[in-house]
Amino acid sequence: MSTGPKNATVEVMVGTVGRPHGIRGEVTVNATTDEPERRFVAGGTLRVGSVERTIAAVRPQGDGIRLAFEGVTDRTSAEALRGDEMWAEVPADESPAGDGEYWDRQLVGLRVLNHAGAEVGRVASVGHLPAQDHLVIATPEGERRVPFVEALVPVVDLEAGFVRLADVPGLIDEAEQA
Predict the structure, then answer these.
(1) Is 134 part of a structural domain of the chain?
(2) What is the domain-level CATH number for residue 39?
(3) Cα gap 100→72, rounded to integer Å
């Protein structure tokens, strides 16, 4: 997937194919990307299931998106794609458009430091809840969940490979709780 460091790419899941729309092969999209306008572009390609497909058209649908793929021209063909994951190949060093925003793939694996700079674990995954995102941190004592807000995770240093937690008793170590 890569042709060298400057051209390194990663494959990221950007959504799944939803139900067909109409009789001409369009499908709804269950997007899992925060930036659908970057991932779903007419003329762009996605791996849908195990097949690379070119996006023929993109149309807004309420709060969502409808796609037409080249070669998918009827409802039966569209229905056959339902539930397939959609993957995009993106530059490995690409960042989200907004300041202070991160993609899960950038955070997973980072060292987690406490407020004093001691390593207390690693980011195992990122959870997405309606109210806020949270970091799932693997520690020697087991998994801990920390809301991913600046007040609790004030430092994210991707280049150095760590996040630093705020000085909040009990955030990671239950024994610290008063």
Answers:
(1) yes
(2) 2.40.30.60
(3) 39
For 68-104, b/e burial (b = at least 16 CB within 10 A) is bbeebeebeebeebeebbbbbebeeeeeeeeeeebbb
Average pLDDT of span 60-89: 94
Q: Which two tokens stand for residue 110?
A: 């980072």
Instruction: Give the whole-angstrom CA distance, residue 105 versus residue 8.
Output: 14
What is the domain-level CATH number for residue 118? Answer: 2.30.30.240
Question: Number of folded domains in the chain?
Answer: 2
Which of 91, 122, 155 is the endpoint of a domain? 91
CB atoms under 10 Å from CB of 163, counted, come to: 23
Structural contact between residues 31 and 64, judged by C-beta atoms closer than 8 angstroms: yes
Asked whether the beta carbons of 48 and 59 are under 8 A apart, the reply is: no
Token pair in block for residue 51 = 């097949």
Is 98 in a helix, a strand, or coil?
coil
- Express each pLDDT in 28-49 by its tens digit: 999 888 788 889 999 999 999 9
Q: Which domain holds residue 153?
A: 104-176
Question: Global pTM?
Answer: 0.65
Cβ neighbour number for residue 40 with a 10 Å cutoff: 22
- Residue 159's CB: how many other CB atoms inside 10 A? 5
